[in-house]
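Appendix B. One record, verbatim.
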Amino acid sequence: MYNLFVFKDLRKGTYLKILYIPLLSILLSFINIGCKNTEPSIPKQSIKKTKYIQNIQVFSTKNIDRTITPYTVEKAFNENGLNISGNNDMNKPFIARFQHMHYTVYNLAMYSNNTLDLKILKKYPNFSVLIPLTFSIWQDQDNNINISTLTINAISRATNIPITDPNLIAYDKLIKKALKAALPNGKFKTLNYNTGLINKPYLVQFTINTNIQKESSPEEYIEDFEAEFEKNIETAGFLIPNFTNIQDEILDNTEYSNKYDYFHTYSICKFDVIYYVSHLHPEAGAWAPCSLYIYKKKNENKMHIGFLGVNNWIKTLNIKDEKSITSLKESQKTIKDIIDKMAK
């Protein structure tokens, strides 16, 4: 795992129901006493307000004395089974680049549990699109400190993993345990984002024929490919705050260690995007930075690349402002164009 701001050589070094019964109905019921039983009429049910399934959860508590900080949160996560691989103060680059910050505290952090990651990856390699998982920490104007993470609903939908998967449930319990340890008096905020009936993962995926020559090797191929990829996205204004070698860090010394020639994930972010989106939606850090996976199975001549599309942000956070939507869509297009060009 690698920390932010080191960008080079990443691979190396409920409602009350009221039943209204008209008087005539009561009288008729007395008249019918002693008559043959009939099926009772079914009263018309009141229409319940739709409760949308939320993809983001925000855990919050008062923090007037500022004793809870991003680093006490990090300590609590680490002590409760979720390894923090990066905890980055975004206000520093925001001030440097935009001369302004939206919140007195705004951090983006990344976390994982290798044991659960391995168990899930055995069946669902697409879970790598959330390795590492992410969250944001911010202090708001009411002196609340908040932590946003993805709900189990979001993780299940975005990765096409059944919500009943025991390892997914274990991850959800571990996240909630860490949140409670980080904010002992915290509570989940009630979020009412009109998300509609989202059932798509919004995954952006690519399959590239590798055509590795006899004189080359998978290791040399991926090293050259990733060097070019890193150069292209950095030139386009993206940063790489984290790189995870899943092959070495998670799969090594397991029965899956020889299943892949390589399996990596990149955490990618762009200041212009998260700066504008976080102004109205600081909880967007549950999706940021974005993870992009690259893997090739042994005995295949194709490589798989994928990342979560920005509709995950837009639809689950009810983003309406055009500036945020435009910056998100432009960024996705840029990454997609880079990979499409490299695949030719």
